[in-house]
Amino acid sequence: MTGIKKVRGRELFDKIDRPQKIVAPMVDQSELAWRILSRRYGATLAYTPMFHAKLFATSPKYRKDMWCELDGDEKIDRPLVVQFCANDADYLLQAAKLVQDKCDAVDLNLGCPQGIAKKGHYGSFLMDEWDLVHKLIRKLHDNLDVPVTAKIRIFPEKEKTLEYAKTVLDAGAQFLTVHGRLREQKGQKSGLADWDTIKYLRENLPQDTVFFANGNLLYPEDISRCLDFIKCDAIMSAEGNLYNPGIFNAEDCSDKDKVFPRVDKIAREYFEIVKAHEASQASHLAMKSHLFKILRPFLPNHTDIRASLASLNAKAPLEVWESKVIAPVEKEVRAIFGRPDIEEKDQIVKGELELWGGSYYKVPYWRCQPYFRPVNGVTADKRVVENLKRRAEISLEGTHEKEAKIEV
């Protein structure tokens, strides 16, 4: 034992001012510069990218690439949770001890569904090894100066997921984050997160559990819908935040400059943050990926800029990034806003209420917005709606069959 009295779940949540809008841990994506930007746009808690515990504990180069003295800085990067993936409790503890004085908690990743996690035997591929999961969390709980938390995915069965969540909490996790998708739901197979299962967990776990929900967040209204439906303490956003940091910036979509910020302004602001924090190698490594996501709706209309961005890498001087990408984007958007019909064109149009409970928005390509991956030419939003329609039709057919039997 450390001999230091650690704060527990609800006490820890109060200590960091009860954050409700959380930047998810994302591999190579939720690094320092992005966390700073996200906090400016409304995020109230951020997680680091998922770090590989054994590499972090044993490789100075890996640590240098992933972590610097500015990470977890009290003035610019708190509250902060540092996330690790692991399958060895000793390496996990060694890694966690290296950061425990620069964060508010350490999180165990039990949700990563990618092939690399399967190969490395971590993340969601520990879901069937409950004794190992318990051992990993308990090792940190018993030996760290800061609390341990955990992020999980769900099983197809609600009851099994509940027992799994209880195991995680029994081991010592002080926050529980539930990503409402199965291990198999990833990439093009993502689909809708299951809010019903997340709600079931919330209702059947101890009420003092600090409980975060993750999944299905596209617009600010989705945040309030999730909080109201699940009764969770906070929501966590991954891709929604990556493609549009403005998702956290307002309670609704009425202020387009806050919720759907112009791509030129976000790109410039993010770039200036990277410049101002050059000690963060991770931010340099992540810049290209972030700019592709920020500019995703814009680049198909300006393929010359897309080609320039594609040609760059982390070793390119920052002035080259500025001259080839940032400045050209600003020039093009200035031209767009110089058009006489800009007031008419720069409109946000809300669609009809969908079966999943929210609405889609039509947003001009020069503004940040959610991304729906196309599969066979059909985007995820349309696939989700069609699936829900089919489910509703099947349910209705079943009701009619029951009514017919009753009449007979």
TrEMBL record:
<keyword id="KW-0819">tRNA processing</keyword>
<dbReference type="Pfam" id="PF01207">
    <property type="entry name" value="Dus"/>
</dbReference>
<dbReference type="GO" id="GO:0006397">
    <property type="term" value="P:mRNA processing"/>
</dbReference>
<comment type="similarity">
    <text>Belongs to the Dus family. Dus1 subfamily.</text>
</comment>
<keyword id="KW-0285">Flavoprotein</keyword>
<keyword id="KW-0560">Oxidoreductase</keyword>
<dbReference type="InterPro" id="IPR018517">
    <property type="entry name" value="tRNA_hU_synthase_CS"/>
</dbReference>
<dbReference type="InterPro" id="IPR035587">
    <property type="entry name" value="DUS-like_FMN-bd"/>
</dbReference>
<protein>
    <recommendedName>
        <fullName>tRNA-dihydrouridine(16/17) synthase [NAD(P)(+)]</fullName>
        <ecNumber>1.3.1.88</ecNumber>
    </recommendedName>
</protein>
<dbReference type="InterPro" id="IPR013785">
    <property type="entry name" value="Aldolase_TIM"/>
</dbReference>
<keyword id="KW-0521">NADP</keyword>
<dbReference type="GO" id="GO:0050660">
    <property type="term" value="F:flavin adenine dinucleotide binding"/>
</dbReference>
<keyword id="KW-0507">mRNA processing</keyword>
<dbReference type="GO" id="GO:0017150">
    <property type="term" value="F:tRNA dihydrouridine synthase activity"/>
</dbReference>
<feature type="domain" description="DUS-like FMN-binding">
    <location>
        <begin position="23"/>
        <end position="331"/>
    </location>
</feature>
<keyword id="KW-0520">NAD</keyword>
<keyword id="KW-0288">FMN</keyword>
